[in-house]
């Protein structure tokens, strides 16, 4: 169909050229009757080709409409099947959401987890942890409150952001020092919602942070290392259309990831990883497969 459309476009252009040449020749020969007849013939041909082009356009619209309906139906079926698969998969488990990246899809992820039977007991956003303009005040605040959890050795240089990240996630996953979380939220260094005094079975870590590799390595990775040290299963997820991806960093460290959490198949992958599957799944280059193997 596209070749046919192109043929008619070229033909119309040729007709216009011929019409112009005919008018020119007719005026030179002063043959009014010849010129009029030639113009009529060319105009008739032009009208026929325009009608054919209009028919082709209408046919193309109908075909595109049919394809769109088929894709919409396919997406609806996939979403329904994925919801049916996920129902009850995480029955009774307590899950903590830690958000380092965009928060737009967090409610959607939370809804999916709850449909699978789990309890999202807390949601903590650390996406703006290092954007404070008052660095000195933040450092003093951090040292003062986290001294309760992990006193600093004397004469030791540390990365303040990594120090904060490690101690904050410790408070989140252990249910200890919950006052630290409240204090940081009151200062607007983080956003915290839910219960922090409950046992956690899984952690869903939502990324990637817009600040790129440096933030991921100084904040996200230290947090995930602490979670791993406490033998709590976790997964790192991100959207398929995120402007930045950290999957390659997490993959190198052996962390399981899903890079298309905004799709039904991505949510199924997340459930399967939380149930024990391991690997890097999704659509991006660093991912190994679209889905874990069904057992």
* Rg for CA atoms: 31 Å
CATH class of the largest domain: Alpha Beta
* Helix-and-strand structural type: alpha/beta
The major β-sheet equals: 7 strands, mixed
- The tally of beta strands, per DSSP, is 7
Using the coordinates shown, work out and report the CATH topology of the largest domain.
Rossmann fold
Contiguous uncertain segments of 5+ residues: none
Give the neighbour order of strands across the main sheet.
3-2-1-4-5-6-7
Integer average pLDDT: 81
Task: State the separation between the terminal residues, measured CA to CA.
Answer: 45 Å
Shape: elongated
Residue fraction in strands: 5-15%
The CATH architecture classification of the largest domain is: 3-Layer(aba) Sandwich
Task: Provide structural commentary.
This protein is an alpha/beta fold and 295 residues long. It folds into 2 domains: 2-82; 91-281, 3-Layer(aba) Sandwich (Rossmann fold). It contains 9 helices and 7 strands. The chain has helices spanning 2-29, 32-86, 106-115, 135-146, 160-174, 178-186, 213-229, 247-252, 264-274, and strands at 94-99, 119-125, 191-194, 202-206, 234-237, 257-258, 280-281. Strands 3-2-1-4-5-6-7 form a 7-stranded mixed beta sheet, with helices on both faces. Strand 1 (94-99), helix 3 and strand 2 (119-125) form a beta-alpha-beta unit. The longest helix is centred in the N-terminal third of the chain and has 55 residues, at 32-86. The chain is elongated and about 105 Å long.
